[in-house]
Amino acid sequence: MTDLHVVLGATGAVGAAVAAELAARGHRVRAVSRNAGPGGFAADVTTPEGAAAACEGAAVVYQCAQPPYADWPAEFPGFTDAVLSGVAAAGARLVMADNLYMYGPVRGPLTEALPYAARNPKGRARAEVAKLILDAHREGRVRATLGRASDYFGPGGRSTILGPNVFAAAAAGRTARWVGDMDVLHTVSYLPDVAAGLVTLGERPEADGRAWHLPVLTAPTGREFLDMVWDAAGATGRSAGIGRGAQRVLGLFDPVVKELGETWYQRDRDWVVDDTAFRAAFGEPRLTPHEDAIAATLAWFRTQG
């Protein structure tokens, strides 16, 4: 039996972390990206031909690639169809690196039983992607599972809401800015812990056929998180929140910030992930304490200048 684990989007933050976790656990890894460097595998997995080449011979495929953020509604479903065709041709299992957008506005903890109630374009796109994958599983085309994470941070996490606004800013001695209400709870995920959860799903066939919330620590408030960042920095730095009004103004000049308006409900109330199902199925995970995760992330951003 093959033990080849294929990571799509291996040069992205999540994909790179998954590839590193797989290697640490002793698996054979094929790291796939459109523009692969030395030791990587170059393929355009948005096409059936490219996806088939990338997935050939795989036991498990980790889908960590995605279209540009603004293009999710137009491109993600077709992208997913191409990946599913490649996974099916290889006879492999699929592990999808997923998020929480499909749920829409929520009151109370987020569980996997929530309906896909999002009405914004990106939330509907993520709901459609999840449905495509789980329908393919039910139809017997592939065996598949989804691992869902909240906002993540960690070494390599440049293009995240926490990367430039919090860690790059603190590393440079600038004001660290939390996007949203600083005094509500917000689950955050550490990249190596996200990767560990996804690889656990890849190693456990009984995970197939459903979505799982990847394990996390207790949710901090934004204010608590920024305090931990400055403690790790060894400095008394400046912290600030970016509220809805400021987001609207900044969005006039920054298209990425403008896009955040669609999902502001993730930032104006408690946004707390319930990972009970994962823990019950796969045991208690070894998660990185917030303080250690923050220190490692800040150190990485400092090396980046």
From TrEMBL:
<dbReference type="InterPro" id="IPR051783">
    <property type="entry name" value="NAD(P)-dependent_oxidoreduct"/>
</dbReference>
<protein>
    <submittedName>
        <fullName>SDR family oxidoreductase</fullName>
    </submittedName>
</protein>
<dbReference type="Pfam" id="PF01370">
    <property type="entry name" value="Epimerase"/>
</dbReference>
<feature type="domain" description="NAD-dependent epimerase/dehydratase">
    <location>
        <begin position="6"/>
        <end position="208"/>
    </location>
</feature>
<dbReference type="InterPro" id="IPR036291">
    <property type="entry name" value="NAD(P)-bd_dom_sf"/>
</dbReference>
<dbReference type="InterPro" id="IPR001509">
    <property type="entry name" value="Epimerase_deHydtase"/>
</dbReference>
